Amino acid sequence: MRSLFDLFLKKSTCAHSHALISSNEGYCPDCGAYLKKYFYIVRCSRCDLKREAKIYFGDVLPKEKFCTNCGSKDYYVEKLDAISFIDIPYAIHTKEVITPEQIDIVSAQIWVDKNGTKPVKYLTGSA
Ligand SMILES: [Zn+2]
Ligand SMILES: [Zn+2]
């Protein structure tokens, strides 16, 4: 058994690159943190079109400034724990560390955007 202290020490330096190769959640073989894969999809606020996403300094942003369908530059980010294969070209995925306490409550977890400026819709994906 690894101690919690051990997890906290190592989770910030590990990129978890060998983790979750064939599953959506599990332990990282390099640092022992419990990880869950999340997907982010950027959508146009006006017409709901899926827009190609990129990660920029840890934020999920649309690749293009304006929606190619309606010309709006407003968008929102959906966080999902599962996506269908047609969404894969649009989605960005992250491996996020779940603490032992969170493993039980992860389905009720609400994700709050760091900047608090963008509207964020949280979906569990299991509904
Ligand atoms: Zn790791
Ligand atoms: Zn649009």
Please, could you describe this protein's structure?
With 127 residues, the protein is mainly beta. It has a domain of 86 residues. The chain is built from two helices and eight strands. Strand 1 and strand 2 form a beta hairpin. It starts with a helix and ends in a 5-residue tail after the last strand. It binds zinc ion (ZN) (2 copies). One zinc ion binds next to loops.
Key words describing this protein structure:
127 residues, binds zinc ion, two-stranded antiparallel ribbon, elongated, six-stranded mixed beta sheet, mainly beta
How would you characterize the largest beta sheet?
A: 6 strands, mixed
Q: Specify the oligomeric state.
A: single chain
Beta content comes to 25-35%
> Share of helix among residues?
10-25%
List the helices and strands and how they pair.
Layout (H helix, E strand, L loop, with lengths): L3 H8 L13 E3 L6 E11 L5 E2 L1 E4 L2 E4 L12 E6 L11 E7 L1 H6 L14 E3 L5
Parallel strand pairs: 6-8
Antiparallel strand pairs: 1-2, 2-3, 2-6, 2-7, 4-5
The structure holds zinc ion (ZN) (2 copies).
Short description:
With 127 residues, the protein is mainly beta.
